[in-house]
Structure formats: C-alpha cells, structure tokens
Amino acid sequence: MSERTHPVLAALSFLSAVPVGRRVELGEPDLRRGAALFPLVGAVLGALVALVAWGSEQVLPAFAAGVLGVAAGVAATAALHLDGLGDVADGIGASLAGGDPAEAMRDPRLGTFGIAAIGLDLLLKTSLLAALVVTGFPWPVVAACALSRAAPVAMAWRLRYAGGGTGTWTNAIGPATVAVASILALAFAIPSAGLSTIGMALAVTVAAVLVGWWSARRLGGITGDGFGAAIELGETLALAVAVAVR
C-alpha cells in the first residue's frame, strides 16, 4: 500500500475502530501528517450515524431510530470518545472532592460522575438525533461530527500534552495544520448545516475550551481522555444547536 495513504489510514485508526493498523504499519509521523484529516474521518462517521438513523426511522419510531444511530456511532468508534468523557468526568468529580483527578482518570473502573456523564450524553444525543430524523435525512449530524474532530487538532496546538501513549504526535502540530483541519471541517459542515454551522462551530469551540482549560489547570496539559471528551461534548452540543435553530 502506498505511503501516501498512511496519513489517511492513521487518522482513521486514531478516531475509529476500523482495524487498518493490522494491515499496514503506521507510526506517529503518519498520525502527525494525518491530523489535518480528522474532520474527514468525522464526516464519514457522521454520515454512517445519519444513514443508520434515517434508514431505521423508515420502519421504527424516531426515538428508536435515534438509539440505533447513536449505537452505530459508538460501535464505529469503539466508544473511544465516550471513554474519554467518562474519565474526565471522574477526574472532575475527584477534584471537587479534593482528590487527585489524574489518579481517578487512570482507574479503569468508571465512577459515579463518569456514569452520569456518559448516560446523560447518550440520552441527550439520542433525543437530538430523533428530533432531526423526523424532518428528513439528518445532515447536521455530518456537520457536527466533522466540526468536533477539528477540536483535538486545535487543542494539540495550544496545549502541552500531559498524557502517555502516542501523544508525541501533538508536538509538531502548528497553525497550518489547524487551518487545514478547520477549512476541511467547514467544507463538510456548511453544505450539511448551512447557517447553523456558525452556532455549531461555536458550540464545539466552547466544549474544547472548557475541557482544555480544566485539563491545563488540573492535569498540567491535555490528555487523550481530554481529546475524547472534547470531541464527544462538542458533537453533542453542536447537535443541540442544530435542533434549536432548525
């Protein structure tokens, strides 16, 4: 397989459960080059969620269709972003109780705050998707998923990485990569959501800023869990804006 495809495959492997890493060896340089393509992967995932929800709504009630659409997204991402949201929520809970947020986030067991955050997020996202699908094909889902995947690129540029694993890919992320990712996200969002894109992009920005601010203050920088939480919250808040202004 051509090395030119490695950045695309690295972005796909990083943001989804597609096992492309089993067929080709991918390194952090590939992920660094592929970061600008994160919104492309997001748009594909959003299209999958929208298609499953829309197809299901042809034979099932809207809420059931929303459940299946959200389930498709969870399966396609192996719940990676939900896991990040749950860990960050547990970290916040530990901070409020005077504990060590980093230790709480490392605990593989999900705490009360994590369970509540994931449950409420899934419930809200399902209801929003149900509200969109009753009016036709839920194109704003594509926009929300594309826009939210630009968030970790911007966060990697502005925040020090404080996690482990493959986080060194963030070291060389600069404004050019952020600009390309942002343009790509808007290229998918504007045709899908129209003027709603403005509010949706603002919602994603708010989610990223809040997660980034808390991570920098309590953890000393951003982590993989922070990226996941920002994506998940940004996507859900963007869908809320899409429903509110529709």
Please explain how this structure is put together:
The protein is mainly α and 246 residues long. Helices cover 73% and strands 0% of the residues. It has 12 helices and no strands. The longest helix has 23 residues, at 196-218.
Key attributes of the depicted protein:
0% strand
What is this structure, in a nutshell?
This protein has helices at residues 6-15, 28-34, 38-57, 62-77, 80-96, 101-106, 112-133, 140-148, 151-158, 175-193, 196-218, 224-245.
Layout of strands and helices, then pairs:
Blueprint: H1 6-15, H2 28-34, H3 38-57, H4 62-77, H5 80-96, H6 101-106, H7 112-133, H8 140-148, H9 151-158, H10 175-193, H11 196-218, H12 224-245
Uncertain residue ranges? none
Order of helices and strands: HHHHHHHHHHHH
Query: In total, how many beta strands?
Result: 0
Number of domains: 1
Shape: globular
In helices, the fraction of residues equals over 70%
